[in-house]
């Protein structure tokens, strides 16, 4: 087993990095910024009961969302080291979407 002793620090840095890429208004810039953070085949995401698999499907789901801005209130983050040296990161909180109607 190869647990990463810095799992908490690395996990929290990842959370900050991820949301810095997500928190842009331009959907193309968001997709570009997040692209390298998802595996082409083995990434999964569930949003409001809809599950998508793979980088392209996840980025398409983000692009199809009917809002551009999100305000979030993160209430809890948990980082767990895994035996292969990777880190499982869970973020819990609330989202408030800002819709644009033109």
TrEMBL record:
GO biological process: mRNA transport; nucleocytoplasmic transport; protein transport
Segments forming domain NTF2: 10-102
Keywords: Cytoplasm, Nucleus, Protein transport, Transport
UniProt-annotated location(s): Cytoplasm; Nucleus
Gene Ontology CC, one term: nucleus
InterPro entries found in the cross-reference section: NTF2, NTF2-like_dom_sf, NTF2_dom, Nuclear_transport_factor_2_euk
Major localization class: cytoplasm
Keyword Protein transport: yes
Function noted in UniProt: Has a role in nuclear-cytoplasmic transport of proteins and mRNAs.
Protein's recorded name: NTF2 domain-containing protein
UniProt source species: Brugia timori
